[in-house]
Amino acid sequence: MVGTSDDAIVVVPANEASWEDLQTVFGRGDPSRCQCQRFKLGRYEWTPTPVEERAAQTRDQTGCGEPEAPSTSGLVAYLGGEPVGWCAVEPRTAYPVLLSSPSPVAWKGRSEDKSDDSVWAVTCCITRQGFRHRGVSAALIAAAVGFARERGARALEGYSMITYPGKEITWGELFVGSRNSYADAGFVEVSHPTPRRAVMRIDF
Known about the structure:
This protein is an alpha+beta fold. The chain has helices at 19-26, 30-34, 38-41, 43-46, 51-62, 96-100, 136-150, 179-184, and strands at 5-6, 9-13, 74-79, 82-91, 119-127, 155-161, 188-194, 197-203.
């Protein structure tokens, strides 16, 4: 078991979790509809792709329920034995949308080799409804650091949302994780491409 524990939060590679547990985390809202394929399929393919097909691709990518799988595409968090969170973490090159996007979120102000697969990325970090504000995302991001490093990454980055005390932010916007959660895990800001986004990075 690879991961971290924090206040009974245990994080494991997704292939060590069951498919049913991951689907429990996704629930019935946006994560269930997305199946963590938005960054994988591309903006023109994601919309017409049926949810069932998205789910099948996620199941193949995660290898859920296959502890001996040679790779997996993320982490699953448990709290008191309950599946409560998911974090997508892979080489940055595994996300076609991120690489081809004209959006300034990932690349503005930076000279980066987009083909460098030794740089990994966290693209999604979600907490199951009913378990939020309990440190799940922070535990997932912290675990992603060790997960990526142990698999040969030379750096890990995330495209975080900036939050401010007392200012409301819709949960759906926080699927990328908050800047504070990355900072707490040792990431530093390397770019501030928009007023509400910060690229956070940790080099190994």
